[in-house]
Amino acid sequence: MRFSDDAIVITGGSGGMGEAMARRLLADGARVALVDVNEEALNSALARLGVESSQAVGLVADTTNEESMKRAMSEVAATFGSATGLITAAGIRQTAALFHEIDLDRWDLINKVNVMGTLVAIRVCREQLISTKGSVVTVASVTAGGARWAQSSYAVSKASVSHLTKQVALELSPHGVRVNCLCPGVTNTPMIAEAAKTDGPGVLEAKVNGSLEQFRPGIPLGRLAEPEEQAAAAAFLLSSDASFITGIDLYVDGGVSMIG
User: Residue-wise over 102-118: b if at least 16 C-beta within 10 A, else e?
Assistant: First the structure.
């Protein structure tokens, strides 16, 4: 129960990874606020979590809209007290397209949601986190550390999240607030299932086993990650077990990052 009565906010909380993080934190005693732009998805996630409203709430907000997020954070404070933790799991993917072919409006949207949405969430939560000397976990990707075929916008956005994490970690360090970046490898979530539909049925096999164009070495551990494995890593970074860790990228990727 290392998060006993802590109030932790998860943006993108209705997604596969966000929901797994909520379940892990609830099991460790936290009270959790799931933030998502999709109210129906939020309600479904809360129903699957199966906990009382005193332990978990869903808040509809757009992470790219500062006023919307301010309202959500005010609700968190009114319901649970000041937040002690924040996970920025909200994000969107890129359908495979070469850099010279990607629609520029889509490029802007991916970077707006993935990068600016992360920035806004931390900005809005800043005062509460300072008051509790809390912790932040941003969510980037294994693509933050290297190029991926036909994923220019997504890869650039996640590299930006990684560097933004370091910048914010430095600026919040005088207040005792830690900020770290989780970089998941390919994880068995609905987002990946959707990628398999739009980018071709062989995309998951290529990710695991390797392919010349996209994922040369494949995944050394030979499988996709499970959402619960990413949740365990996020819980570690949020917890006092990581009390002297800030500004790092933690790759949970089955070994992909060690071989490029």
Answer: beeeebebbbebbbbbb
- Break the chain into its structural domains and give their ranges: 7-246
241 secondary structure, DSSP code: G
CATH of 7-246, one of 3.40.30.10, 3.40.50.1100, 3.30.565.10, 3.40.50.720: 3.40.50.720
Q: Verify whether residue 251 is a known catalytic residue.
A: no
Catalytic residue chosen out of the listed positions 3, 80, 107, 154: 154
> Per residue in 30-83, pLDDT tens?
999 999 999 999 999 999 999 888 899 999 999 999 999 999 999 999 999 999
Q: At what angle do helices 117-132 and 152-172 cross, to 10 degrees?
A: 20
- Number of residues that make up the chain: 260
